[in-house]
Structure formats: structure tokens, C-alpha cells
Design goal:
This protein is of the alpha+beta class. The chain contains nine helices and nine strands. The longest helix is centred in the middle third of the chain and has 22 residues. The N and C termini lie far apart (52 Å). Bound molecules: pyridoxal-5'-phosphate. The site of pyridoxal-5'-phosphate has 8 residues, from loops.
């Protein structure tokens, strides 16, 4: 399963699928791709009974691409021992053995490991609950903009909206890639293309990782100007709607004691 579907802006209910597998007494292992979901949307490998979680450095962990990691259940490790599937790259035994002493079977991507250490510090300094709330808030602001434009959000069911990105559907007859091209060339803002069946029908606005209200406002401004230049008739200003949303929803979330205990004390620079 995919935790957060990055091509459409839709999340999956992982825990519900686990319950369904268990209710059917099916032996299948539950493998979850949380490449874009991890550290941007709530994710619980152990609690949800996931067997193999797959993630990478390049999305919510705010790093360049280059390292990927798995979290494994005991059941998955057991299954891998008897699996007949020929494997080398995907064989876990060697890395599990060497990781016990902090080593790797091959040369690790040291630069990215240092970066990952820093990214984890950043996330824990804020508190993971604050980081997740921040993404939900950004997503709501972007959706407020899309609604004000009078455009459709690709994800039809509000219960599974992605906190990580929003797919924006174009009206009939408008080529989404032509709109993206204008926004890119005129305003230096790169948006995600529609993939597969929705190619040319939608574009994607990302709102994850090391961002803030103002960079997101800049992206929405680029979108609004580009949509107008492309001749798309807008119902109203998404930029104003998003500004209203961000201004009227200050970030305020109590830090959980658990996160405080886990997080190092943030260093503060005081200017006198
Ligand atoms: C980005 C992404 C991928 C692709 O990861 P690669 O490291 O490029 O293979 C796969 N799945 C999801 C959900 C993603 O967001």
C-alpha cells in the first residue's frame, strides 16, 4: 500500500487495511510505501501492524535523494529467511547483522546520514506533533485557495486529503502542463505534473518539509498569476483566501510531554 499517494494527493487508511487482513485471517505481509508520508503525516509502523515500511530521504525528511530505509516486523524478517525469491540487494540479513555494531555491509552515504541526523534534530526540536499539525494547516490553506479559484481538488474525499500535496484539476479544455510551463517560465516556480491518467488534467502543489507560510503564499501567487495568464477563468482570489486562512489560524499546539522528553533543548540566539 501507499501511505501518501504523491501522484494524486490521497492518503490511505493503513490501520483499516491491517484490520481487514487480520479479519480475513490472511497471511499476507503488509508492505507500506511511506516515502512521501514519513515525517509529514501521522505514521505508526508498530501500532498499525505494518510488516515492512519503506521510506526515503527525499521528501518529508528534507534531504536530497540517495538513501532509503526499511522498518521490519519480526514476521517480515522470519518470512525473508525462508523466501525462495532470489535476492541480493533486498536481502536484509547482512545489514541487520552489521547494524548491530553500527556498521554497514557496504559504504554508506555518509553525507546524507549526517544530513538525516540534522533533519531528525529539526523535526524533534519542533516536536513531531507540531510538524504534523503544520502540514495539516498548510494543506487546508492551499485547499482554501483552490476552492476560491473555483477549481476542483483532485482528491474527491475530504476524509483522505493529503497533508503533503494538493492536486489541482484544470477545467475542461485547459492543458495543465501548459499552465505549469507558464508558471515555471514566468515565475520560476516548479509544480508537479499530473501522472498517468491525469496527465495534462491537473498539477500538484507540494506543501511539505522545510517550508513556511510565506514560501507557500509565493507558490500560490505564482499559480494564480499563471492560471490567469493561461486564460483560466477563476471564481475569485485563492491568494486572498489562503492569506485569510493563515492569518486567522495561528500555529498553536501544546507540545506533548513525550516529544519534549525526546527532543534536545533548542538552541536560541538572543539578539541584544
Ligand atoms: C517519491 C515517491 C516515490 C519514489 O521514490 P524513488 O526514491 O524515486 O523511487 C515512491 N513512492 C512515493 C509514495 C513517493 O512519494
Amino acid at each position: 500500500m501507499v501511505h501518501n499517494e504523491t501522484s494524486t494527493g490521497v492518503t490511505s487508511n493503513i490501520a483499516a487495511v491491517r484490520r481487514a487482513i487480520d479479519a480475513a485471517k490472511h497471511p499476507a505481509l503488509l508492505l507500506v510505501d511511506t516515502i512521501s508520508g514519513l515525517a509529514s503525516a501521522d505514521y505508526r509502523h508498530d501500532e498499525w501492524g505494518v510488516d515492512v515500511s519503506i521510506s526515503g530521504s527525499q521528501k518529508g525528511l528534507m534531504l536530497p535523494p540517495g538513501i532509503s530505509f526499511n522498518a521490519l516486523s519480526v514476521k517480515a524478517i522470519e518470512a525473508s529467511k525462508t523466501a525462495k525469491l532470489p535476492k541480493s540487494f533486498w536481502a536484509w540479513d547482512e545489514i541487520i547483522e552489521m547494524n548491530k555494531t553500527g556498521y554497514w555491509p557496504s559504504t554508506p552515504n555518509t553525507n546524507l546520514l549526517y544530513g538525516l541526523n540534522e533533519a531528525c534534530d529539526m523535526l524533534l526540536e519542533h516536536g513531531l506533533d507540531v510538524v504534523l499539525a503544520r502540514h495539516l494547516r498548510w494543506a487546508e490553506g492551499v485547499r482554501a485557495a483552490v476552492r476560491a479559484w473555483g477549481l476542483q481538488i483532485q482528491c474527491a474525499d475530504p476524509a483522505v486529503y493529503s497533508p503533503i500535496l494538493t492536486g489541482v484539476m484544470m477545467p475542461e479544455g485547459v492543458d495543465a502542463d501548459a499552465v505549469r510551463k507558464i508558471i515555471y517560465e514566468r515565475f520560476d516556480c516548479s509544480l508537479g505534473t499530473g501522472l498517468g491518467k491525469v496527465k495534462g488534467r491537473m498539477f500538484r502543489i507540494g506543501h511539505l518539509g522545510d517550508s513556511n507560510d510565506l514560501t507557500l503564499m509565493a507558490a500560490l501567487s505564482g499559480c494564480e498569476m499563471g492560471l490567469k495568464l493561461a486564460g483560466v477563468r477563476l471564481a475569485g482570489s485563492g491568494v486572498l483566501a489562503a492569506m485569510d486562512h493563515f492569518a486567522s489560524h495561528p500555529v498553536s499546539l501544546p507540545r506533548s510531554p513525550a516529544m519534549d522528553a525526546a527532543a534536545p533543548t533548542p538552541t536560541r540566539v538572543v539578539l541584544t
